[in-house]
Automatic annotation (TrEMBL):
The lineage of its organism: Bacteria, Pseudomonadati, Pseudomonadota, Alphaproteobacteria, Hyphomicrobiales. This is Glyoxalase.
Amino acid sequence: MLRNVLAFTAVRDVEDGVRWYKMLLGREPDTRPMQGLAEWKFEAGGWLQLNENMQLAGRSSITLVETDMDERMKMLTMAGIKPKSFVNGNFVSIIIVTDPDGNQVVFAQGKDENHRATM
């Protein structure tokens, strides 16, 4: 049985990527297990892995489950990160941003019982 997920995002330069994702997530990576790799662990489970990979850089898309879109929008503004789009749907709200390498990062917050994240 699967119990968790590790999301992978490829960047051209891991040090540049870490600087940007620190602004995006508001914190340092939790671990740097090897050269060219940084990882953030999330409270309810799951990891985001930033990997230096020139061939795949800019081709990743990840979705991060958000619990407070207003707070996320404030954090993005404070970090100088401009969303590409914001959709306030009936069941899910999403904010989409793009990292400097062109990877898509989606913040999603479910509104009903079927779409809401559980902690």
